[in-house]
UniProtKB/TrEMBL annotation:
The keyword DNA damage does not apply. Keywords: ATP-binding, Helicase, Hydrolase, Nucleotide-binding. Signal peptide: none annotated. One of its GO terms (molecular function) is DNA helicase activity. Residues 19-240 form the DNA helicase Pif1-like DEAD-box helicase domain. This is Helicase. The keyword ATP-binding applies. CDD domains: SF1_C_RecD. It holds the Pfam family HTH_40. Residues 655-739 form the Helicase Helix-turn-helix domain. GO terms for biological process: DNA repair; telomere maintenance.
Length: 757
């Protein structure tokens, strides 16, 4: 994980939201400036989806966006939890004693879970590099599912912190649709969990969870209706509230011809029946419009019908927001089919309120998965398949489940007797106001009872008075975690070991030279890892008690550690690898090996940059303002630092020329490195290119050292730089060896020219 390398410098807040919405702003700060797990909730219409989109566009962290169902994941712009973690469907109890009989076939303990999931190298890389996991519609996520995710992350990341150290952002409204658990499953789970709500997961019992609630309601403006909805949420619905709702009950209600009501029902078959009956009543030709499905797109995730049956005059609703500048429709807006211009791939939708007609074209939804791009250090989306269809569905009726997240101006609610927990609130909260409400049957008091566990949990929300204090504490803890992570060498050691092990059965030119180089690098990495481990232990002790931390001492110790590591990393890892690449890339059968070396060099350079900026982090810890000032520093890993240009690339020659000009203008190597955002070894490499032409070798190295290097090179002709380095010892660096090689090369060239003349 390399959180710190981008945290300090790529976090620039974009003020694209309501600056008066304090909760929104603080929630963004908790996500971007801390590693604190966060539950963001809010009543229907308070902007939870807007917040998710904002984080998606404005968070620097490597993230994955997930949801419990395919449709919810599609709406969130992510993937399902089961797809990301390869979870089996069933019950998870970590320490469950399996009997292996028929009733246990759907129960997974830790051992059976790991024997079932397929963690490929790419999937492991995603989970190892993940910094932020977003779970949308968390009201439907089961506690045992969350514990399975926790176990997987801890194992893959080898980190026993909750979720393996990954920050988790939970978004949702617990007063809406609850988790689905079968009776047989609950009989097994009830002895392990108080409820199936996500907050009763074992991983959250001993893990701090900041809880924030968005307050400003954008959907409803009717204060009386808002009050009723609030009372339903809080189990405080009064007789007067119930009377007010039931005053909208009509046994038989026939909408006026110009009124566009939608029926909300609890069962899918009822919604389908209503839609089909109304469609048949219309005169005219039926058009069956098939979706265009490409590649991998599971039917369960289809955002609308695969075959859309429409007639002119059919009542329809939009299932996406308009992305145009005029925003003529929103997700849930109801209209009617005015014209079917299918030869032009268009449907004209009109509105009975006199609104402007909308020409609708096919929209495309993408089924994505995440993959880790090591070269750019990003978690990226890969499109597996697409679903293309008109963003419409028949809208005489819809299930309450499918209505979640939609907004209606007029709705007939068919309550019946089969409401699950949360469904009354979901149905009512879809409406913009009471004036558009019609009840087919009266709502009984018992039908609007909110689960007491949800009510108790929601009492723990952080109030505005506590937010600032908790945020500053979390910011400092996060900075400390980044420091600890910055000095962990495991990733580098494993990368070197993996490359070394892979060479055993390779047919590479001058394999003994390769093995000698790998031995030198492995020895250096392990020595550095040993020192880093000791420093991390000390640092962990200094950060152990957040109430009594000597931040100045941490700053001083970090400064000393950075000064110890940087020159060793530069000489023993960066310069050595760069030199080895230059020597070996001209040999036969080394193409794959060189690619792997370049990836390793990229890891070394990134780690070097992370360490350089640890001083900035340590200094920020000594200040009251926490992390926010770090946004002003600039980019941590600049393109010039991490780019490894191919030999002969014009850009590489250009960057060498820039370095030469700065050197000839009087800047020394250290100054050029700082100004160009590069390591000193890279600057040396640029200047060495001009030794014998623009620069004299003794401008870069003492005559005494140069003479000794030349003597060793001449008496050990044919040996690699790694072997020469071992002969010369620690007093000599790879750039100095390269200068000697350049002098000999220039001398040989001059002799050939002289002989030819």
């Amino acid at each position: 994980m390399r959180t710190s390398k981008r945290l300090l410098l790529q976090y620039i807040m974009k003020q694209q939201y309501d600056n008066e919405n304090k909760i929104f702003k603080k929630a963004v700060a908790f996500v971007n400036q801390t590693n604190q797990n966060l539950f963001l909730t809010g009543k229907a219409g308070t902007g939870k989806t807007t917040f998710l989109r904002y984080i998606r566009d404005n968070c620097y962290k490597k993230m994955a966006i997930t949801a419990p169902t395919g449709v919810a994941a599609m709406n969130a712009g992510g993937t399902t939890l089961h797809a990301l973690f390869w979870l089996p469907f069933g019950v998870f109890i970590e320490d469950y004693a399996l009997k292996w009989d028929e009733q246990d076939h759907n129960i997974y303990n830790k051992s059976r879970l790991f024997s079932t999931i397929k963690l490929t190298k790419q999937r492991r890389a995603i989970l190892q590099e993940l910094e932020l996991l977003v779970i949308d519609e968390v009201s439907m996520v089961r506690a045992d599912t969350l514990d399975a995710i926790d176990v997987i992350l801890k194992s893959v990341r080898r980190d026993m912190r909750p979720f393996g150290g990954v920050q988790v952002l939970f978004i949702g409204d617990l007063y809406q649709l609850p988790p689905v658990v079968k009776d047989a499953e609950w009989q097994v789970l009830r002895s392990h969990y108080s409820s199936m709500f996500f907050f009763d997961a074992k991983v959250l019992r001993n893990s701090a969870l900041v809880k924030l609630e968005l307050q400003q309601i954008y959907r409803q403006q009717d204060t009386g209706f808002i009050s009723v909805l609030n009372n339903i949420r809080n189990n405080q619905c009064t007789a007067a509230d119930l009377d007010l709702l039931n005053s909208h009950h009509h046994d038989v209600f026939v909408p006026a011809q110009d009124d566009q009501y939608i029926t909300l029902t609890s069962h899918n078959r009822i919604a389908e029946q209503i839609n089909q009956e109304e469609l048949v009543k219309l005169a005219g030709r039926m058009h069956n419009i098939k979706a265009i499905v490409k590649d991998d797109f599971q039917q369960g995730a289809f955002p609308t019908e695969e075959t859309l049956a429409l007639k002119e005059g059919a009542q329809v609703m939009f299932i996406k927001n308009d992305v145009g500048e005029d925003r003529k429709y929103f997700n849930g807006k109801i209209g009617f089919v005015k014209e079917l211009l299918l030869d032009k791939h268009q449907i004209v939708v009109g509105f009975k309120d006199g609104g402007e007609d909308v020409v609708v074209k096919r929209e495309t939804w993408e089924n994505i998965k995440y993959k880790y791009n090591k070269g750019e250090d990003k978690i990226e989306e890969e499109v597996l398949g697409t679903f293309s269809q008109y963003p419409l569905r028949l809208a005489w009726a819809i299930t309450i489940h499918k209505s979640q997240g939609l907004t209606f101006e007029k709705a007939i609610i068919d309550a019946g007797t089969s409401f699950a927990s949360g469904q009354v609130y979901v149905a009512l909260s879809r409406l913009t106001g009471l004036e558009g409400l019609v009840l087919r049957s009266k709502i009984a008091a018992h039908a609007i009872r909110t689960d007491y566990q949800v009510v108790d949990f929601m009492k723990q929300l952080l109030d505005e008075g506590e937010m600032d204090k908790v945020l500053v504490q979390c910011q400092r803890v996060f900075l400390g975690q980044i420091l600890l992570q910055s000095f962990r060498w495991t990733t580098l050691t494993e990368a070197v070991q993996e490359l070394s092990d892979s060479l055993a059965n390779r047919n590479i030119d001058n394999k003994p030279g390769v093995e000698a180089f790998m031995l030198v690098v492995m020895t250096a990495v392990k020595q550095q890892e040993g020192v880093a481990h000791k420093f991390v232990t000390q640092l962990y002790g200094m950060l152990a008690n957040p109430e009594d931390v000597d931040y100045q001492k941490i700053c001083d110790r970090t400064s000393s550690a950075v000064q110890w590591f940087l020159p060793r990393m530069e000489s023993e890892l960066i310069d050595a690898t760069a030199q080895h690449i230059e020597e070996w890339q001209v040999r036969k059968r080394t193409k794959k090996y060189i690619q792997e070396l370049k990836a390793l060099l990229l890891d070394f350079k990134r780690k070097y940059e992370v360490l350089k900026h640890c001083l900035t982090i340590a200094t920020a810890l000594t200040k009251e303002e926490g992390i926010e000032d770090l946004a002003l520093v600039g980019n941590i890993v600049k393109d010039d630092t991490v780019a490894i240009a191919d030999e002969g690339d014009g850009k590489e020659l250009d960057t060498k020329q820039v370095t030469l000009e700065m050197y000839l203008d009087g800047f020394d190597i250290a100054q050029i490195a700082v100004k160009r955002g590069m390591v000193e070894g890279t600057i040396y490499g640029h200047l060495i290119h001009y030794v014998g032409t623009e620069i004299d070798a003794e401008d870069l190295i003492s005559k005494e050292k140069l003479d000794h290097i030349l003597m060793v090179l001449k008496t050990n002709e044919g040996k690699s730089s790694s072997e020469i380095k071992m002969i010369l010892g620690d007093a000599y660096g790879y750039p100095e060896i390269k200068i000697g090689q350049k002098v000999l090369e220039t001398s040989d060239t001059n002799q050939e020219v002289g002989a030819g003349s």
